[in-house]
Amino acid sequence: MNLRQYIAIMFFATTLCWVSLLFVVTNIDPFAASLVAFVFFYLSLFLALIGTISLVSLPFYNKLGANELSLHRFVRKSFRNGLFFSSILTILLIMRGTQTFHLWNVTILIIIFSLVISLNISTNSYS
Question: Do residues 53 and 86 touch, judged by C-beta distance below 8 A?
């Protein structure tokens, strides 16, 4: 798969995720919704954010990165960052929705994600 095919598939999938999020937001009443509705909301938001952040950060990595690195490494880095940032944002929204959004919880979450990112970077010598 070349870069053009990857971007086209990722753009199409991200668009579908944003459409599904719009469908969930417009058709489900949050006051009368069950747990399944909230799972659909957070899952579609999570997937839409992964695609959006990955697609937005890919040109920056491609232009600002070293020229000797292969393109699949830039794609991998942008997808990894999209995964991490969308995970943080989605977890923060879940915490806000369940009334557990407190300073200590957010601090612990940021420390955990910082450790995971540091571990990921230190184990991959080519990242």
Answer: yes
Give the count of domains, the chain: 1
Among 40, 43, 79, CA closest to 58: 79
**Does residue 126 register a pLDDT over 70?**
no
Residue 29 identity (one-letter amino acid): D
The sign of the torsion formed by the CA atoms of 120, 117, 58, 18 equals positive
Which of the four pLDDT bands, split at 50, 70 and 90, describes residue 120? Answer: confident
Q: Which domain holds residue 119?
A: 3-123
In degrees rounded to 5, what are phi and psi of residue 125?
-75, -20
Tell me the C-alpha distance between 11 and 24, whole Å: 20
Instruction: Identify the pLDDT of residue 40.
Output: 94
